[in-house]
Amino acid sequence: MSCPSARAGPAGRMPRAARDQPLEGPLSKYTNPLRGWKKRFFVLEPDTGQLWYYLSAASRGQQAPRGALSVVGARVCSSPDHPFMFTVQSSSGDTYKLRAQDAQEQEVWMTQLQLCSRRLSDSSKTLSPEAQSPAHTSLEPQPKRGPLSGDQDVLLFKTPSSLSCLSQCLSLFHQNLHRASLHNHIQSPSPQPCSPPGRAAVLGQPKPCAPLQHRDPEGVSSANHSPALRQGSFRADPGPGCSTPPSDKHQRNSTAPPLANCRTTREPAQSTEGAEEEVTDTEEHEEEHLGVLDEQRSVIIHLLSQLKQGMDLTRVVLPTFILEKRSLLEMYADFLCHADMFLSITSGRSPEERMVRVLEYYLTSFHEGRKGAVAKKPYNPVLGETFHCSWRVPAERVKGPRHTAAPRQSVEGSGSPAQSYRVRFVAEQVSHHPPVSGFYCECPEKKICVNAHVWTKSKFMGVSVGVSMVGEGVLYLLEHGEQYVFTLPCAYARSILTVPWVELGGKVTISCAQTGYQAAVTFHTKPFYGGKTHRVSAEVRHGHTGAVVCRAQGEWNGVLEFTSSSGETRVLDTQRLPVRRKKIRPLEQQSPHESRRLWQHVTEALKAGNMEQATEHKHHLEERQRSDERQRAAAKTSWTPKHFIKQVQKHIWHFTIGFVY
Predict the structure, then answer these.
(1) For residue range 532-548, what is the model confidence (pLDDT) as tens digits?
(2) 3-class secondary structure, 182
(3) Which of 92, 129, 135, 161 is the most exposed place for a label (fewest CB within 10 A)?
(4) Backbone conformation region of residue 492, classed left if phi is above 0, alpha if psi is from -120 to 50, else beta
(5) Quick one: pLDDT band at residue 313, thresholds 50, 70, 90?
(6) What is the architecture of the domain spanning 308-315+326-399+422-657?
(7) pLDDT over threshold 60, residue 145
(8) CA 510 – CA 504 distance, rounded (Å)
(9) Can you tell me whether residue 230 is helix, strand or coil?
(10) C-alpha angle 207-213-217 in degrees, rounded to nearest 5
(11) Alpha-carbon span 561 to 563, nearest angstrom
């Protein structure tokens, strides 16, 4: 093992040379129950925090590393299972089980890994744009006297904190300077309600204010001209008389819009266009398992003969008989089928309880959105297509803080019927190439909203099809100043030549930069031999301490079991959870670009089993979309979404809501 010093000093401290140079050497790594322990050559890069491993020392310069693990925020601890064994568990949940040759080598590796983890964790919490720590809005008094330390390790650990403090002060200075500059250039003399663009709607204000122009980090400015802001549905006062809520004392990671500098007060939201005309949805979307008929099999085989392994299916026209009788935009709305659990999130007493509730809602939302395991494909939304709906949730169905005696019986300041909350949803196809959908839902009474964008990428995989859901969503708890960023799993259509079925797979994350809690969720695909289908497991950790506060396991369309750190177990059966029917306007009252009215002829033909007519109507919609695209290309104009505003940062699509309905 290459290391300048083979022995740790007092209190586990290593000489500076050992910290600044890569630590490398052979270790035994546990691979799997069949192969057991295998000798591998490991290299720890202290600057990047990466633990690489190779098959051997000789292959290091000739071959790429076989694997890598980030030690930033990782837990390093010894294990009693084998002599000189220790584990390295990353913040994402991946674990290396390692074994040294003797106790001295074990101590050197564990000490180096722990020092590297602590040093880089302190730096990344504040310096990384993806995971910034909460910033202070004022300077804190510091002691004028105190003991001075010359210990190199102590100074090394304190340096990133001092640097991050200076960086945050500089950032606050620039923000205040920019805000003052904008305030001095307000030109509109008439006061109007306004809301900062580049973010989801914020509830209420004590007084109106003048329109404020906003410039995002990319230099694209936008003004508040949306109808909802003129209607006063959601208002915010960023003027100098506003107070700063707890939410503004936190910075979130760079991919979600910041919360506004305003005082949020509960105020009745005005009714939006067509909202009072909604009726309870009676449409049934249960799809039958289809065994592929002979004529359908010949179509599929002909299609497969033209495809190659890994080919992108975005532009491939698929046969009509595999279509599900709803649009992809409506499928996103069906993820809100447990709206009562969604609203219960903000009632959690502590950040830990709220994160666990976010996880519970997240895992129970897929069974209704996917309608079980039937492998049918929703309609591809056309550019400009929208979908609107809402839910009425009785107040007694919304769970309050745990260990409370009784649920809340009234709703303060809501414009809805007594003892009920209203959740509103809007989705829009904002891009055709690539196919990106934006969706947003909110409940003003509970000060909770979600803003998300998803880019669907389909790939041919031989006898199956994989669909990646690229993008992310942000859940805002405005009352607590918290923002939860989440991603979505991949979907796979298996056995497309026999009896198709669908499963979810991949690793996703849910993280809250303000509280430090994060959840690592794994959707397990079925192994080739044996194993169960639709399995999912999850783990909630506190990012700063690494402590596990909750574990979950089960089936995303079946029974889920949640176990807290105290040993308390909570079981949720997704098949027995009450599904709330969404409310939607009748077909004749919908606009021509709303999903159900747009696809009504295709849906009617599919219900009647007339595939030829369904194909004809589907082809008509696709041709109309191509014609509109050619006209825009000839006129050199681009498509402007109706409800969302496009922002591009680091090649990621972001959309912010303009108004609901």
Answers:
(1) 889 999 999 987 788 99
(2) helix
(3) 129
(4) beta
(5) confident
(6) Beta Barrel (2.40)
(7) no
(8) 17
(9) helix
(10) 125
(11) 7
The CATH architecture annotation of domain 10-127 reads Roll (2.30)
pLDDT band at 135 (very low <50, low <70, confident <90, very high): very low
Alpha carbon distances (Å) from 607 to 34, 293, 370, 374, 502: 51, 18, 19, 16, 22
> How would you class 285 by CB atoms within 10 Å of its CB: exposed for 0-12, middle for 13-18, buried for 19 or more?
middle
Q: Is 567 left (phi over 0), alpha (psi -120 to 50) or beta?
A: left
Identify which has the larger pLDDT, 22 or 518: 518
396's tokens: 């007694």
Residue-wise pLDDT for 511-533, tens only, equals 999 999 999 999 999 887 777 88
CA–CA separation, 93 vs 581, rounded Å? 36
Q: Are 450 and 426 in contact (CB under 8 A)?
A: no
Given a contact cutoff of 8 angstroms between Cβ atoms, the answer to whether 381 and 596 are in contact is no
Structure tokens at 587: 């077909």
Task: Provide the residue ranges of all domains of the chain, joining segments of one domain with +.
Answer: 10-127, 159-249, 308-315+326-399+422-657
**Global pTM value:** 0.59
pLDDT digits (tens, 9 = 90+) for 261-301: 333 333 333 334 455 677 887 676 555 545 445 556 666 77
User: Is the link from the previous residue into 434 a cis peptide, with omega within 30 of 0?
Assistant: yes
Neighbours of 238 (CB within 10 A): 21
Q: Quote the crossing angle between the two packed helices 611-635 and 600-607, to the nearest 10°.
A: 160
Using a 10 angstrom Cβ sphere, with 0-12 exposed, 13-18 middle and 19 or more buried, the burial of residue 471 is buried
